[in-house]
Amino acid sequence: ASAAKPMLETRRSARSGSSPSGRRGDDDTGDVGLERAFARRQPISRGEITLAGAPAIAGDWIIDAQPRFSDEGHFTGYFGRLRRIPAETSALYIPEAHEADRIRQLLHELRTPVTAVQGYAEVIQQQLFGPAPHEYRALAAAIAADAARILAGFEELDRLARLETGAIAMASGETDLAALIRRTAAQLEPVLEQRRAVLEIKFPANTTLLIALDPDDAEALVWRLLASLAAACGTDEQIVLRLAPLIGANGAMAQLGCTLPARLAAEDDLFAATARSNDSAINPGLFGAGFALRLARAEARVAGGGMVRDGDTVVMTVPLLTDSQGRSNPADHDAFAAGR
Question: What's CA 322's distance to the chain center, in Å?
Fold first, then answer.
């Protein structure tokens, strides 16, 4: 009974709407963010809480919980779990990871009102509660679209924070990088033709280069890179794409080199560039080319490769699919060499 006491008191605090008092005790969290989540009836993710009581439960815990509501909409408490902080995790705890957690909590708080606005706009646009004038429906549709773009931007921020702190990993798989580059360039070609610009592929059409990335993750990564470059591309500009296998100290890699358009080449820090597309048909992301490239760099690094600027070229490397990953692809290197 004594072991259950702290848990019961924490639950009663949530039910009554009172936040923890700030002193160390049965229901004290010592964390302002957790207190705010309790007071606002918000989900709690990786909250820190200290319990006092029987030795089996005393000490520091991590709490994940979701608020529960009755059918009438009344708050009834939290349902969740507590888990110990492993000793090795505590030793590796760094300020950057804590800051990423704070960013994710902030993004959660920002998503809530944006999602509500999007929902109300869709109700008006779809006339779910009754007829609405065409002008109102058109405005509601535009608001819903803007909200969707903002939410997509929040997802990108959250993904970057998780990648840069090692909270998530890129899924492994098998993807033909050469075919993916050709397909993505073909998607961008109609828009670039209007500017008399071009993505010029400088590797043979029959090239095959398998990389150890999930197809969806690989497609998102290549799109971020090429769309960022194409969005900044001016009239009559040419972006040259070169692909080659690279065997070095870091293992077997696929190396993609892309020349930078003038707008990005003029930036001192490519990964903080503020250049945005003049054409809404190409959208590398809500926050512009610099952020999209920084996100692509984080994805490449987590995958085991990287992305760097080399003069007027940006170079991305990702791991090739090798024997140790369950498949041998020497034919890829032979086909690449034969194509040359």
Answer: 27
